[in-house]
């Protein structure tokens, strides 16, 4: 578990880097331990920006978003905190991502975390595709 790679921890594809912060490896490690999610799934999510639709992954994302301050205990996403952690993107790209993903709402805190994270990853993937075309 020493070398946990990516997923909201230096997601570095091309020039887009998402969620960079000093405490992320520690948060990822704690949430892997707490939820029992397979570390390889976490790594794969960080590399592919695709999130599997399963309950353990959803619990992991909710744990991680709360530990990183991206979601409050009631399950609401804290978009201002997310906004400040989307680095390597222009302010227009960040605003577009936040604006789009603010529209997404799950039925509970776990589903909310999953759907918003999936939305953000989808937006990042589209930004990466656009940058590759240039």
UniProtKB/TrEMBL annotation:
<keyword id="KW-0732">Signal</keyword>
<feature type="signal peptide">
    <location>
        <begin position="1"/>
        <end position="18"/>
    </location>
</feature>
<dbReference type="InterPro" id="IPR006170">
    <property type="entry name" value="PBP/GOBP"/>
</dbReference>
<dbReference type="InterPro" id="IPR036728">
    <property type="entry name" value="PBP_GOBP_sf"/>
</dbReference>
<dbReference type="Pfam" id="PF01395">
    <property type="entry name" value="PBP_GOBP"/>
</dbReference>
<dbReference type="GO" id="GO:0005549">
    <property type="term" value="F:odorant binding"/>
</dbReference>
<protein>
    <submittedName>
        <fullName>Odorant binding protein 25</fullName>
    </submittedName>
</protein>
């Amino acid at each position: 578990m020493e070398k946990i790679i990516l997923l909201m921890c230096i997601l570095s594809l091309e020039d887009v880097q998402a969620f960079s912060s000093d405490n992320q490896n520690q948060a990822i490690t704690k949430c892997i331990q707490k939820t029992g999610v397979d570390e390889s799934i976490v790594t794969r999510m960080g590399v592919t920006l695709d999130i599997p639709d399963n309950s353990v992954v959803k619990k992991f994302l909710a744990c991680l978003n709360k530990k990183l301050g991206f979601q409050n205990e009631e399950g609401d996403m804290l978009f201002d905190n997310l906004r400040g952690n989307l680095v390597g993107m222009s302010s227009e790209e960040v605003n577009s991502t936040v604006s789009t993903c603010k529209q997404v709402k799950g039925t509970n805190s776990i589903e909310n975390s999953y759907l918003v994270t999936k939305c953000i990853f989808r937006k990042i993937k589209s930004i990466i595709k656009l940058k590759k075309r240039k």
